[in-house]
Amino acid sequence: MDVLTDNFSLYGKGFLGTVELTFYASILAMVLGFVMASFRVAPVGSLRVIGTVWVTVLRNTPLTLLFFAVLLGLPRFGLVLPFNVFAILALGCYTSAFICEVLRSGINTVPTGQGEAARSLGMTFGQTLGNVVLPQAFRSVIPPVGSTLIALAKNSAIAGAFSVTELLGTYKTLNELGYNIIWTFVWIAVGYLIITLTISAIFNVLEKRWGVAR
């Protein structure tokens, strides 16, 4: 317990840093994932190409490489932002590709006849997607979206290697201070467990309320 009690503020700062990264990156991932999923099922060919390229590139790019590209590459083009903002961009964009595919799979579970019926009533593509398809698709994708955001929370550990304050990075300071490395990582693991269990609990509530009964 000494590792935790003697360094509670350090652990707390790292914990809040991870929570902040997870929260803002999750919002970005959800927004971009929704946009790209809409592109991938759009009737406009150019939008489908954009969505496909986005997903293909990001899903097949190692997250660490994406961090290097964003945190070290963008400043060379004159875009200078705090490192935590760059980390949110990297995490959010990377995870959006997976959110996109989860949403697209949910959209594909909605019978095509529903979309055709909506269009026969004069609805536009946007109205059909927003009022008919997505509300039904959302109910079937709650569990996989939750799992993807849990993975995002754990992936945020990479940000510590780029001078971003987060939970895993606290081990460097504690190791230099001579604390037992095993107990250092035990409390770090507890912190991640709290975050991931919280996300899981939120999505369990959403699933019980809106999920599809199986």
Number of distinct helices? 9
Low-confidence stretches: none
Categorize the overall geometry.
elongated
The chain-level structural class is mainly alpha
Strand content: under 5%
Global mean pLDDT: 85
CA-atom Rg in angstroms: 20 Å
Domain ABC transmembrane type-1: 15-203
Protein name: Amino acid ABC transporter permease
Family: Belongs to the binding-protein-dependent transport system permease family. HisMQ subfamily.
Membrane topology: Multi-pass membrane protein
Could you explain the architecture of this structure?
This protein is mainly α and 214 residues long. It is built from nine helices and no strands. The chain has helices at residues 2-6, 8-40, 45-59, 63-73, 83-108, 112-120, 125-155, 170-176, 181-210. The longest helix has 33 residues, at 8-40. It is found in: Cell membrane.
Question: Which features does this protein show?
Answer:
single chain; 214 residues; mainly alpha; 9 helices; 78% helix; elongated; ArtM/GltK/GlnP/TcyL/YhdX-like; cell membrane
